[in-house]
Amino acid sequence: MKSYREELWFNTKTRRAYINITPQVAEAVKKSGIKEGFCLVNAMHITASVYINDDEPGLIQDYDDFLETLAPHEPVSRYRHNRTGEDNGDAHIKRQFMGREVVVAVTDGKLDLGTWEQIFYGEFDGRRRKRVLVKIIGE
Ligand code: ZN
User: 75: burial class by Cβ within 10 Å (0-12, 13-18, 19+)?
Assistant: First the structure.
């Protein structure tokens, strides 16, 4: 069995961002040389997510509106977590809702994604360097 590990780094200009990282993950699969196996992609921070869905701007704005309805950033005083001096209580909840990781099958050396499926990095407390782990195992 072969394995391959890579970190993807992000530093978004905005507090929240939704970035299609499918090309970078596909490149990692290529570099791994693995033809049959699994590819795990996970956020390495508790205020960011990795998820799979459509790359459609309306949908992305719908997520953002929904997440802000579910857990608005302000007022920051509404979150007990922010009593620690942080202001990212909302970001922890947004991450929990959107998930930590995805696993995609690797078939014939490529990501075996469904129709319209794209891998996204969801940032909920950006403007600092954060990373995503890509781990591929197989042969
Ligand atoms: Zn926090």
Answer: exposed
φ, ψ of residue 117 to 5 degrees: the values are -70, 130
Q: How far is the CA of 107 from the centre of ligand 1 (A)?
A: 38
Determine the Cα angle at 42 with ends 39 and 47, to 5°: 170
Determine the CATH number of domain 2-138.
Answer: 2.60.120.460
pTM (global) more than 0.85: yes
Distance 87 CA to ligand 1 centre (A): 7
pLDDT, tens digit (0-9, with 9 covering 90-100), for 85-114:
999 999 999 999 999 999 999 999 999 999
**9 Cα–ligand 1 center, Å:** 19
Q: Where are the domains of the chain?
A: 2-138
Q: What is the DSSP string of 104-131?
A: EEEETTEE-PPTT-EEEEEESS-SS-EE
**Alpha carbon of 114 to ligand 1 centroid (Å):** 34
Amino acid at position 111, single letter: L
Q: What is the mean pLDDT of the chain?
A: 98
Å from CA of 81 to ligand 1 middle: 7
